[in-house]
Amino acid sequence: MDEKVVEEIRMHQETVATDANSPLHRIREKELEFSGRVLSAKREADEALATARKRAAEIAAAAEAEGGSGAADREREILADAEAEAKLLREAAAVEAYTLSEQIEARRDEAVRLVLEAVASS
Question: How far is 17 from 27, CA to CA, in rounded Å?
């Protein structure tokens, strides 16, 4: 117990032992009553503060978790978009490579003829 509370209890016991009806005794009783109210109010305030701090920590943790899951969801979305775009680019590159291959094949005979003419004329 708090040292002040113990002292007040002793003084109260001494006052009761000496004279229960004296003005000093009644004043002391009121002091003890007010002291008890103050201690009770302080305890309630401490409990309310602890509850508020706990709730604030819970809210902060929930917000952090929500923010973390939102970031993870966004990351997955960005990766999926990037993979889809990469797939489209690979497909377009394959089509372009095939088209170039066809053009090379179609022009090969002409290229060979031109090279032979260039060699023969030199």
Answer: 15
12, 29 contact by CB (below 8 A)? yes
Q: Residue for token digits 């939102």?
A: 70
- The CA-atom distances, in angstroms, between 113 and each of 9, 38, 106, 117, 122 are 121, 110, 13, 6, 14
Q: In angstroms, rounded to a whole number, what is the distance separating the alpha carbons of residues 2 and 117?
A: 114
pLDDT, greater one: 113 or 18: 113
Domain ranges of the chain: 3-121
Instruction: Take residue 75 and report the two structure tokens written for it.
Output: 């990351």
Q: Are 15 and 25 in contact (CB under 8 A)?
A: yes
C-alpha–C-alpha distance, residues 111 and 117, integer Å: 10
- pTM of whole model > 0.90? no
Q: Residue 25, class by beta-carbon neighbours within 10 Å (0-12 exposed, 13-18 middle, 19+ buried)? A: middle
Element (H, E) at 1: none
